[in-house]
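Subject: Neu5Ac-binding protein

B.,
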Amino acid sequence: MFTFKQAVFGAACLSAFGATAGVAQETLRFGHVYEASTPYHAAMVNAAELLEAKTDGRYTMEVFPASQLGKEAALNEALSLGTVDAIYTGVAFLGQSYGPISISDYPFTMRSFEHWKAYVNSDLFDEMAGEYKNISGNTIATMTYYGARHVTSNKPILAPADMDGLKIRTPNAPAYQMFPKATGANPTPMAFAEVYLALQQGVVDAQENPLPTIQFKKFYEVQSNINLTGHITNSLAVVVSPVTLGKMGDDGQLLLDALAEAAAATSEEIVQSEAELVSWFRDQGVNVNEVDRAPFMAAVSPMLTSGNVPWDKEIFERLQAIQE
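Prediction pasted inline below.
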């Protein structure tokens, strides 16, 4: 006979099982510094859905945009500690662990988007990503195109001489300071979140970023000219903590797969956006200036093969030999 006492015991067992099942699902944390309106954020929200599906609900992921978990340096530190599971970070930050991998963030090391795409699928990149992992412990899940960087200012920048004395905001990394230094400008490191106000108040004269970033950060509201220097072919790395992969076991590969799958379409989306934004900016009354890049490339070229760069001649030559 099925007694009331047995029914209570059975309900308690079911409740305990449900609680155990609930505990078994773990939510990972993905942090980045970009706005929620960007395709980078949308890609990682999609990655969270893919992860949950691939792991049959064992894992999901919450995505924190706009520096909610800290600025980029703090996110990189948190990744090593395992307090953040995965992040977007710039190649220059990867270079703090393994210098040569920062090469793609230096001016005019990439000829085009197609050259960049061939590079991130090359043996050269695989080797450097492996060295980065050996040193940092972190795993690069995938790379995403961020865009070609252009100079914005309140005057046309058509030749290196137009950069002379210009106080230009740059990220605090040598890769971004090379172009201004080579052309006589004064690079001024500043946090990303502070740039709009600094331009508005005249603290700096100029800044440089890809067209989608210029749009979503609204820099065109406080700068009259966008000069198509295309001096850096920029990218973001999606990087995963060794602590996270260690605790996930076989599910770690499913996380890497979800991140790569979700990010795959973002690069093409950014390329399409760049093509459309020139007309959009002109419709807003901004001067978008076509630039002869050759004189700028000539100014930078000697610095790329000097003894002051974090790669050797062989890596530079292998990169240039990659065919797009």
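The longest helix spans residues 251-283.

T.
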